[in-house]
Design a protein that fits this description.
eleven-stranded antiparallel beta sheet; 4 helices; 2 domains; mainly beta
Amino acid sequence: MLKGVLGCVAAALLWTQAAAASDNWLPHPDGATWTYAWSDSAYAPVSTLEKVTVKSQKGTSFTLAWTTDGLGNPDGAVSSAGAASFQETNAGLVNVDWSSTPPPPEFPILCAQATGCGNALSSTLYNLIWGSRQPLLAEPLVKGATWTSTGGAANDVSSVSVYRGREKVVVPAFPQGVVRIEFDHSGGANAPVMIAELQSTTQAPLPAVTDDDFFPLAKDSTLAFRWTNTKHLKTPETDRFVVDAVVNGTARLKLQSATGPIKAVGTYGFSKRLDGLTNLWGTTTSSASVTFPPLGPTGVPASQRNRFVTALDLLTFGMNPILTALPAVGDQWSSSRSSDDFRTYAVDGQTRITGMQTVHVPAGTFRALVVRSTLTQRGYTFGSGTRTCWFAAGKGLVKLVFAHRDGSVSTVVRLK
């Protein structure tokens, strides 16, 4: 495990965020430069100036290079040069490679054997990627985000990272607050501390977007819903789910109990990535004393077609994503006939985040995002209609109303 605490503080930023893309947290336009001053209280007490530039980029990959040459560093400062390569992925930013001049001999050896050791903490970027390369930064970056990662030349360093929120930090490049890195090594009150602060840059900070989580998936958390349909399910059905596994933004929800006319068991998989909140799978078995109208698609045998068995089936039906990565009023998206979703459901649809509303449900009163989908499953009126969902920050789905084209209305409300 990583020994010590590494803090990277951002607030609209050197690592700027303009959308749900990692190239805004770690921007890399041609010609961009950053100059840092860094020191380590035990091994590099003399502050070192270090200039970082964009060395190359191709597609979703880019390389940042650094040097201490030509910056007027004083005697006792660290002399180094190197490069670190990164790649933007749907799950966030990863570090794929690095190289540099050797660290100063007074620095600790960070490998089991000194010969050929590829680990170092003798630059700003090395401290940034230490122990957290795959991924360096998980995305979307929302409140409560937690991820595990590995690093080091032989993946011999592991870490757990937690997004703690925003904090104003003043540095010379941006007196109004921007970025710094602080690495508090283990060892008690007198342990070494490494600090890097931005001195200057060609980049300008951008306004920060929301970091609210509108579908939190913390392990062992529970979600309870009551749902009815005006024609086909007049006796309420209550479903209780538990999040029984979470790994780097992917969660498994287990149907813990179901009471009412439908007796069911099942599991669901959800993933939060830069392409949004998506449903990965839903597997249920059930018996019911009620009968719903059939769902498509036509080309699938009737025994293998989808059915609404739990409240989550009403949410996941039709198309992904369920939500954009960092939801904002005005976001809109459509189904694709070449997608796996269309092959599964054969639903044409459009979704739009229409605004914010105050909604009252048994679980409480919430200010919620309103997400409206228009769905058409050709030949099946029960699989067609308008679905409106309300998502509250820090809570998730709190209400759903599906006005089916057969004239019935399904309503789901959050109980817990």
